[in-house]
Amino acid sequence: MTETVVAAEVLSEVRGQVGFITLNRPRALNALSLGMVRDLMATLLAWQADDRVLAVAIRGSNKEGPFGAFCAGGDIRFLHQAGSQGNPLIEDFFTEEYALNHLIHNYTKPYIAFMDGIVMGGGMGISQGAALRVVTERTKMAMPETAIGLFPDVGGGYFLSRCPGSVGEWLALTGDTIGAGDAIENQLADGCLPSDQQAAVWDALGSQHFADGQAIRAFVASKFVAASAHHTSARADIDQYFSLPTVGDIVRALESADTDWARATAATLRKRSPLMLHVVLEQIRRARHMGLADDLRMERDMVRHCFFLRPGQSETVEGIRALAVDKDHTPKWNPGRIEDVTPEMVTPFFASPWPVHAHPLAALK
């Protein structure tokens, strides 16, 4: 008789004074399942109440071992299947994921995220609230949700809207990928650690004695090196175009400009869900004036609309189908053109389907 042992998707252990978490779903680039969200929540709550644990460190893993890939987001195949079939677990996934994001932002001990390799979507949700956000020369960071007819959730409205200038609008609408230097410059990371030094720093956290959690944080930060930003030259363009009032204004201005960057950026926007571009611009601008808890409640409302409340078609189910399931890369967006989206199509996304007292995230402070 052969026994198949399925490895845990979240590995956790306490060594010395630090709680260590390794995301262990490398074949899926550590995309978060509902089970992983629940394991992370339970572990973090237990360690928050454990006086032996002064700080928490989290990393991803790739097929060769630890590091190399942090987390590529949520499990979009599950979201497609659950969204297509009306599976209520999709509701649990988003409610519990956002509650986890909120816990990380408000964690009472230093939470240190080693953001090596791919850090996208849900991976940003479990790292942006960290006390120390560590990137490497291999980091590929993005919130690419508009490509699948979704919006930058997991608190994306909150943390993207707090980037300098109109960088938040640019990253949210295009889904463009940035590296370590740009992540630091745009306040989405705190410092760069060379990838070949991660293991030594990680191991030292478990073997050295520290006075307190802040000393652990300071030890990691002392290993940072300089990183160069690649999009600095485009910053003036980003602010010029992405501060415009509407998506239509942004695209028209980009298409009438005579630079390679503007043409490429306009072409990217033309591939995204026209409806969700309008929704996302509204999301980022609303979130700029919200606290984290209110932003997460707004995003929870938006998710319900994305999957269940839009008559006729879910842009998100269609986007995931085209990108990740059938992989034909020809989503049938509805409406098909940026110019055909009306304010009446956008407004419902921001109407909560729940009364305040019954909201799934009512308890978040």
Automatic annotation (TrEMBL):
Q: Which one of the record's GO molecular function terms can you name?
A: 3-hydroxyisobutyryl-CoA hydrolase activity
The UniProt record lists the Enoyl-CoA hydratase/isomerase domain at 18-350
| Top-level division of the source organism's lineage | Bacteria
Please give the biological process terms from Gene Ontology that the record holds: L-valine catabolic process
Provide this UniProt record's keywords sorted from A to Z.
Answer: Hydrolase
CDD domains documented for this protein? crotonase-like (cd06558)
Q: What is this protein called?
A: 3-hydroxyisobutyryl-CoA hydrolase
